[in-house]
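Note to self: user wants both folds in one dump. Writing first protein now.
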Amino acid sequence: MTRAAPYLLVVLLLVAIHTALVFGGLSPILKGELGDTDSYTRLLRVEVLVEDGAWFDSRLSQFNAPFGDTLNWTRPLDMLILAGALPLVTELGYSWREAIYWSGALLPLILHILVALALAWAAAPLLPVSARPMVALLAAVTPIMLAYNLAGKPDQQTLLFLSLVMALGWVTRGLSNGDSPSRLGLYAGLWLGFGLWVTVEAQFAFAILLGVIGLVWLWRGEERALELGECLALGFFVMVAVGLLVERGPLWPTLRELDKISLLHALAAAVIAGCWGLMAAIARHGGRTKRYFTAAGGGALALTALSFFTPELFLGPAGQIEPRVYTEFFLKIREMRPLWPSDTESTGLLLLWLAQPLIAMPLWILRRPPSLQIWLPTLALTVAFTLMALLHARFAQVAAPLAAILLVYAAHELRLHASALALLAPLFLGFGAVLLIPPDDSVRPTCDLGTIKAELAALPQGIVLAPLNYGPQLAYQTGHVVVGGPYHRNTAGILDTLDFFGDAPDSRAREILTARGISYVLACPVGPEKVGLERQKALGSGQGPSWLEPLELPPGQDFRLYRVRG
């Protein structure tokens, strides 16, 4: 019980923090709302699954109306939400909609706790027993972890991160002189395969960890490293194959998609597992020269086979996105923006999201341990995802909490205690820059869908055309179907929305309304991403054309609603 007490305190602290965020109003779940657009879509998706039971059909009729949209999301997070909702329905008499809402709203807290504890477990071979609870604490209160795991924000990225942390823990143990490397490698591969099932971004961590194992084998010639890599690749293939069959069903042989688990990923996993098995058979018990030649040959064989069987994979997960959607929408998503400092706000975001790795890595190098081998997986993942976060902010969710392991080690070696808080000064400077210093456009319109949802729901049901990020909340709270949804596969819906609210001529705008049978247009002068397109600004200021009829909305907000004239 003595060893468990610090972890219990971390759990209680997280529960207290989330409770304070809920009752303080930062999380909107007490108002029946959710934390972001993806959360509304996720719960809609789970409701549709309950209603029609179509496991293999990820189409949502609520988006890209009247045609529907197919998402690249997968089922693992859906099943966790359903698992939490089921007892609420069967034991407490909740409706499915209520049960799914509360299960989805509270799931982030559970995943947050699991990730914090998993990080402490993954760090166990690297740190003394007394320092491990500090990893759980420091990682858990990292700003980006709190932001991604706010109550009311069920997010598959946290489930992905949990799988990466578990794989990291097994790989770290496999590179130490502990248990059987074949078993540990298999566990790591299964977790990484599950991560790829959740979202294909797991392929980056798979490549990094397998590369680290390969370098250790080349460097030291340890047979356990060769065995670890061989079994990791095998476990990865097994879980990817299972995930492909469970997720895609009888269509699996025909699907070659980059943004969702498909035949491409299973073929690539099979190629890599086969090449590792071949290298292990040839190079086992060989000398350094034999290792080098075997690795070069195996690498060349793998690249050749991948180029033949899965050439699309070299385009990356976003390689199949329509070019205009990619440049005008995808790269402008907040998570996909770079963290390079260009002004006060962007500098604040850099410090807020990446202060921990930027502090931890130099300190760790200063006090690096004498044995580097078992540190390489943690260090490689932290460095790689920090660099990736500078290009796309979303990867900071992996870099920042992983850096807690490096920071705790450095603080322990430097014998820092209370004075260690000074190390987080850049983090608090980031808070100040983002939260306290008002941006140049601090006077912004008030466009809160929650204040008008009742009025919108009371209108005769129809198709609503609104800026992209309002689509999911509209569909979830009002029962209307929408054209725009902020999901890259919704190519036609995104382009029609951008054209209508942009500077397309009136003839093109009216063509969109007619072709889709749109009933209503909802506009705000500036969207949630601080982007105001030309027609959006005009409609948001009440300057609608004759073919749109203004409708009354409650005062105190800046939305403008129009009915399309017949």
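First done. Writing the second protein, which came from a different request thread.
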Amino acid sequence: MPIDCEDQELLEGFLQETAELLEKLDDDLVALEKSTDDTELMNRIFRSIHTVKGASSFLGFDLLVRVTHKTEDVLNRLRKGELIVTPEIMDVILEATDLVKTLVADIKGGDIIDREIDETINKLIPLLTMTVANPEESASVAETGEPSAPSAEEAVQPEAAAGTGSGESVTVPQEQQPVPSPPPPAVNRPAPEAPKKAALPKAGEKGGDDLSDNTTVRVDVKRLDDLMNQVGELVLERNRMIQLNQDLQGGISDEVSFGEEFGKLTKRMNFVTSELQMQVLKMRMIPVEKVFKKFPRIVRSLARDLGKEVDLQIFGEETELDRSVVDEIGDPLIHLIRNAMDHGLETPADRIAAGKSGTGTLVLSAVHEGNSIIISIKDDGRGIDTERVGQKAIEKGLITPEQLSLMSPREMFDLIFLPGFSTKDKASDLSGRGVGMDVVKTNIKKLNGLIEIKSEQGQGSEFILRLPLTLAIIQSLLVDVEGEVYSIPLASVLETLRVDQREFHVIGGQEVLKLRDMVLPLIRLEQVFKVQRATEANDFCYVVVIGAADKRVGLVVTRLVGQQEVAIKSLGTYLANVPGIAGSTILGDGRVTLIIDPVGMIDGGEGAAAAR
């Protein structure tokens, strides 16, 4: 049914405020389960639901009002101490919150879909007449929906205790009973069945509860002020440059004084444009908390499904990165957390038998390092059994025994990223289909990121993601290939080497270099881009080692030119899909330089090797 709202601006304000409240609500509810005596947290949760109810009542969203009103009344009893927080009661509240998100998503989509809400409300109603129960009674009510017999003083009709679920409730002193609000006109909206439990986002999905608008970014006013100040500085330097040009053209300035003034202007312009660039970049930056805040709820649900006890620790939520990167890392992190919960962490009994604490620890952290952000997912579980991984890969026909015998431990860790790989013998709702880690690899490669695995059997594993801060302006390494200059994103460069070409070997038609504990495939850029040789063959050359996700290759170049910050420019629709090229940039001397796409280069090298 289309939404009938006369004031579109009012509706948009409601959606924006509600999205912000609901995004924080999951995290707060999970935190409340661990800190049941946190009065401030309980009051914040109550206020969030109360605000959503009041706004939805004003706009006439009846289904939303009914659910939020009952949820608010249950939360009111919890904050008064009339109920005790238990996992079972929290399950009901979380289910109601999910239903609220679904109803708000319907409103945002422009259509109110008729949905069945009575099942969720019927789980909330018994909690309104329950005595200050022991945890066992709370669990019984949450599971069966039937409370124990109330005393004479508490024998109140459920609907009277809860209110009728429509208009704004009146705040009354704690010692008084809440006064029911007058009912609104009845609206009959039969609908499909609501979900019975919180559904976790599947691979490739953004999640139905993501109510934020991906086309806008909220910016701190101070950042806008800083940006305006830098634009003002840029205008002053522009005026100075115009004046210098007029003086030169009019013969007022000689070459010596012009050179000195122009040198000063160049330094000031460099400083101002660098500051301006940083301010614009900061405006696109948002805290990684936007992604992290959904994980306490996911970990809680998985732990209950798997029968495991997990302590999730989150660090570096305030770390900022580009909006475009934030939007893409949600899926990989969900898969890595599910992997750690299902494959990494053991059950309490197994952990105690291994001499560990019954509660497993899962650490999610983010930190800046240079022009990259490092995100780590670390667990203290069983670690990766490389022997089992190798055997599973052979059983599934992904590698041969000969290939396995030549692999280093790090290369064996990387086997889990192969498409179709899984160590689970039987597929479950959580894993066992061999798609999770493949999705991680694909998404990280799309961002020109890197994945590193550290693991010790019996002690735990750590997955480290190295991602660029932004995808628009990058630090790059300029390289010369027989007189042609190419730009390689520095975030993908692991190291550079000066090598004697006589150390190169050919294995299966592929040039390789033995580099410490690994065999590094080589790609000659002059052959890839068909560059004419401009100099005589030299025994020595440079190898730029690049990586994308779990893969590493070496690019053979003539010499290294230097490091430079460049802005990526599109090649247009006609040249959009050139293999191995991500775009172009313009150097200071006006030359156009192609920017190499590490992912395309690595995939192209693998394809060429397979063809041979």
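Dump finished. Worth passing along: The chain is about 45% helix and 20% strand.
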